[in-house]
């Protein structure tokens, strides 16, 4: 029986891109269904009636929602190629912690530091620098967060590899200086240049327009 894999995404969703990358690493063929988030399809609302958002992975008719949940599903379902999470329970727990850190702590701070206003923006820039030190520390002695190969934490932080430059350009602020964060800067380059991901990046100019309009 053939496996049917569909991914509901948008052109710019950083969360959906995680799933694109994971499926590419696993060598899984899939159909990408691009949603207009201002006019969501009935299928998207059917498959994700709770949050009504992308990404949604539909595997043989069964929907899986929320990007970090989907990553684990992909890793467990196609477990024969390129493992994303470590087997050790403690290392696995750590990976999940840092993925949540990316979404719940770092991403909102960087958003405020670049797209915010006034005191909130200045405070966010200070806090962003402090929190980026944790990320830099994680990369000591490693090419990727997963070691020599891209893993779960790399995919969680993957948005930084392309979106930081966009947000810096829009805001005129430099958040990640090579001299301050050499390991993180190198990781961003390595992740962005990773051959399997080359064709997945959203259009830079279109992203600039999108985030300028947020202001």
Automatic annotation (TrEMBL):
Read off the Pfam families from this record. GST_C (PF00043), GST_N (PF02798)
**Classification via SUPFAM superfamilies:** GST C-terminal domain-like, Thioredoxin-like
Tell me its EC number(s), please. 2.5.1.18
Q: Where is the GST C-terminal domain?
A: 88-211
Which molecular function terms from Gene Ontology are attached? Answer: glutathione transferase activity
Query: Which residue numbers delimit the GST N-terminal domain?
Result: 3-82
What keywords is this UniProt entry annotated with?
Transferase
List the InterPro entries hit by this protein, alphabetically: Glutathione-S-Trfase_C-like (IPR010987), Glutathione-S-Trfase_C_sf (IPR036282), Glutathione_S-Trfase (IPR040079), Glutathione_S-Trfase_N (IPR004045), GST_C (IPR004046), GST_C_Tau (IPR045074), Omega/Tau-like (IPR045073), Thioredoxin-like_sf (IPR036249)
Q: Which reaction does it catalyse?
A: RX + glutathione = an S-substituted glutathione + a halide anion + H(+)
Domain of life assignment? Eukaryota
GO BP annotations of the record are: glutathione metabolic process
One cellular component term (GO) for this entry is: cytoplasm
PANTHER family attached here? Answer: GLUTATHIONE S-TRANSFERASE, GST, SUPERFAMILY, GST DOMAIN CONTAINING (PTHR11260), GLUTATHIONE TRANSFERASE (PTHR11260:SF762)
Q: Which family does it belong to?
A: Belongs to the GST superfamily. HSP26 family.
Q: What is this protein called?
A: Probable glutathione S-transferase
Q: Which organism is it from?
A: Daucus carota subsp. sativus
């Amino acid at each position: 029986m053939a496996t049917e894999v569909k991914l509901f995404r948008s052109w710019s969703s950083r969360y959906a891109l995680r799933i694109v990358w994971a499926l590419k690493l696993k060598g899984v063929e899939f159909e990408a269904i691009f949603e207009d988030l201002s006019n969501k399809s009935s299928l998207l609302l059917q498959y994700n009636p709770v949050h009504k958002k992308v990404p949604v992975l539909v595997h043989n008719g069964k929907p899986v929602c929320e990007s970090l949940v989907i990553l684990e599903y992909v890793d467990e379902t196609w477990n024969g190629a390129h493992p994303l999470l470590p087997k050790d329970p403690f290392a696995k727990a750590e990976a999940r912690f840092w993925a949540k850190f990316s979404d719940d702590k770092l991403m909102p701070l960087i958003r405020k530091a670049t797209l915010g206003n006034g005191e909130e923006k200045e405070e966010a820039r200070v806090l962003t620098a402090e929190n980026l030190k944790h990320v830099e520390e994680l990369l000591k002695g490693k090419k990727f967060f997963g070691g020599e190969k891209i893993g779960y934490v790399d995919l969680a932080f993957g948005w930084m590899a392309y979106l930081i430059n966009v947000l810096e350009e829009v805001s005129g602020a430099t958040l990640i200086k090579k001299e301050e964060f050499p390991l993180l800067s190198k990781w961003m380059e390595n992740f962005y240049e990773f051959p399997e991901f080359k064709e997945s990046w959203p259009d830079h100019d279109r992203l600039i327009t999108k985030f300028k309009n947020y202001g």
